[in-house]
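INTERNAL AUDIT FORM
Audit reference: QA-55
Scope: verify that the stored structure record matches its stored sequence.
Auditor: D.O.
Record contents follow.
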Amino acid sequence: ALHLELLRQTRPAPHRPRLPAQLTGFVGRDGELARIAALLTAPDARLVTLTGPGGAGKTRLAVEAARAHPDAYLVELAPLADGARVPYAVLAALGVREGLRSTAVDGLDRLCGALEDREALLVLDNCEHLVEDAARFAGLLLGRCPGVRVLATSREALGITGEVLVPVEPLPAGAAQRLFLERARAVRPGFAGHACVPDVCRALDGLPLAIELAAARLRTLEPEELAARLDDRFRLLSRGDRTKAPRHRTLRAVVEWSWDLLDAEERELAERLTVFAGSATVRAVREVCGTPDPEDLLDSLAEKSFLTVAGGRYRMLETIRAFASEHAARHLDTDALRDAHAAYFLRLAERAQPLLRGGGQLPWLARLAAEHADLDAALRHLAGADRAGALRLMALLSWFWRLRGLHGEQVPRARALLAAVGDVPPPGLVEEYVLCALNALSGDDGGPAAEEALHARVETLLDSLDGPLRLPYVLVLWSVVTGPRPAANARALRLAGTDPWAGALLDMGLGLQARFAGRPGEAEEALTRALAGFRATGDRWGMANCLEPLGMYAHARGDDDGALGLLDEGLALVRELDAPEETADLLRSRGVVLLRRGDAAGAADHFERAT
């Protein structure tokens, strides 16, 4: 009756491959593979979950990592609609069949019976839509089968004790481009690359699925055509591998799969978050999106891989943003949303403006740098919706742009805004109008006649101001455009008023005028006063711009040690500011001192770094 005994037992099916063979090479992810391999042999990491957005390559990474295990099985959960079927899916992956008279009717009991004495690795793929059931199953199985390990993939964590998370981020630039080239050569043999490939990979967020779909389009498109059509990425990337599940064949299907798993509140916030061009703080989300307490929703969206989080800032991948924007256009008043976004960033710029000229300027420079993409987006919106607001925002950001060497990119926008506003400033916005004009004058494409007319207009407007200036860096930017002009000193004194920073600025201007006029004693005296004034305010930019000429005066007197001390102090300050123009000036001056000291190699290095 041996055959009857066998029929009563749960038995394995004939041997079959446990992990799918791949038709393409695996690119990148060396660090992730090494980490997963280490975790899968660690005694305290029996549940490892790969998390990340759809299309990030979690499944492929899990399969490649599992190949090193002698007894690994892939369990595909995506087709399941009922979490109660999870144990049966695992049984099927193991090839375990139920005997005719098996006494173990519960799937989990049967599974534990099959695995209790084995050291197996189960790859539970696509857990997100059954996350609670998958978590419950994994916890029970691991508790009853000490030799079993689980490697899960999910767009959110399973959330059980002992789980170790391995985030699967988008591919870095180099790996993304290698993947594109490899997949492109499959449809276009001999493809050697193209200048637009880095831009394509960047536009697709480094998502492997999107890159593979894009590369496949080179069968019929030229690289330039592909890059130009990425604005409509969901239509463009609509043909995928027919051997894959429908949810992975197109970019839209991948994102839609995740979108359908969000609840109504999560979807609404995701739609509202599309207004942010970059990353956003909780406060920004609260004020722009009108969500009083967004923390839990933001964390939930991050856990479900709709957002990435770094340094307390939440960012949406461009591919997900494009999808969510389509829904936002159907469900939201997007003009009102952009108005709220612009109003928030205008308020932020107003808070930052006076603090960029004092001892607390570094955190505010870092804050504005982090918000640069959204400040730009707000300015673009205001230029079309509220020209007065656009003038205000451009004026408030002008000093930040100058400190960070970003003013050149604003020239076309300043010229367009100036043309839209006309020759007469809106009431109460003369300083803002002047700053817009000064940004427009930073370039030289307008022709001498247009430039001369704009110079004259700015002169007239400055003469009309009573002072003191609300935005005293007007004086700096005007002197950058016109150069030192002693004839304007009386007006500058009137406009500066009693502001300590503006007073130090006036002394610096007098010192530079004397320097260019060949009066070193007078120049050094004024610059020393200016340095003391800037030290009192804490402004690193002002101090550095005084330290450079003072250092060169020390050098002229033969005090090279003193000169290097002053120049080094200035370099330390501008490096804190990340101010490229002032850094270059100080490096060149330091190179001059080194050259006279006989250090030709050091001088050459400084001159090269200054270019």
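Auditor finding: record pair retrieved intact. The chain has five domains: 4-167, 173-255, 262-332, 341-464, 539-610.
Action required: none
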